[in-house]
Every structure is written in C-alpha cells, then in structure tokens.
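User: Sequence in, structure out. Go.
Assistant: Echoing your sequence, followed by the structure tokens.
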Amino acid sequence: MDPGRGEWSLYGGFVGADESLTDAAHRVLKGLTGLDKIYMRQVGAFGDIDRDPGERVISVAYCALINVKDYDDSLREKFGLEWVPLDKLPKLYSDHNTMVKDALSMLRRHINTEPLSFNLLPPLFTLTQLQHVYEAILGYEIDKRNFRKRIKQIDFIEKTNLIDKLSSRRGAAMYRFNSRAYDAAPEFKL
C-alpha cells in the first residue's frame, strides 16, 4: 500500500476494535504462517511523527520465534513474503530496520535469562543443536567446551538415555527441556 509501495518492509496488520495488541499480533502471525501458540513478545512502539508521510501512524512491533521449516510455505507465497538472513537484510521502509535491530537486541538480552532457545528446538535435541541456536541469536561462535560445561550445570536441561545417530557418527546424547524444573529454578543465567 502507499506510501511505501515497492519497498521492502515488515509485514503488519491492523488491530481490530475487539482485540488486544497481542491478540492482533497472534492473528496476523497465524494468518501469515499457519502457526499458533508460539513464543511472541512485544518489541516496542514506534511512533515518530514523520515515520509515514501519508498520515500519523503508530506501530507496535512484535518478535516471534518460529522454525522456518514449520510454517506453511503456501502462505508465504500467497502474501509475497520472503525470509531474509539478517546479514543480508535490505533497506526497509521507514523505521522497520530499527524494529528488526530492536527485536534482535531484545532476543540477545533475554537468551541468557529465559528459555528462548527451546522454542526453536525439537523436544529432544543435542547440545550441538542447542549451541547452534545460541550462536544464531547471538551472532557469533561460542566455545564448545565452555558452552557444554555450563549447560551440564543447568538443572532444567536434562540428559536422556537416547542417542542421536543421524547427525553424529559416534552418536550424540539427546537432551530435553524440563519446564517444571525451570519453573522451580532460581534465576537462570548462561
């Protein structure tokens, strides 16, 4: 829609008269991906006076953690959406690059204090898979030995008796997130 037609932008929607901001965000995300009941958090409100030359517009941005392979790709095609790696993010309309930057900063702040990474992992995972999620969110490589040493000290990441022989020649131990242990744990910090 104008203004901004032909420019890259984040996809959004309008809040209905009978829904909250969060309900609207979940509705828009489900309509675009087919996914429901996933991690979503408000990033912030964006309301500079001149952010949209057409009229006064205030946007409330949300960040959701979804595994790209879980969403309905036909919806992406239907709405003309694209997944873009952060390091190849083009110039976006208005302040949308700021929204992305703020969302990434928020995730990086919370990855060490909330169990965010488990929203992107299967119920059973290897420590290598967990480390890859941390590295993807943080944007840098983590020392494997230090990461594993710290993870093994966390009570709510449980080692199972199962072995993953598909992604590892020798077989990697499988782990799981124990939400009850997390809820009972004192402050978490990786």
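User: And one key feature?
Assistant: The two ends are 43 Å apart (CA to CA).
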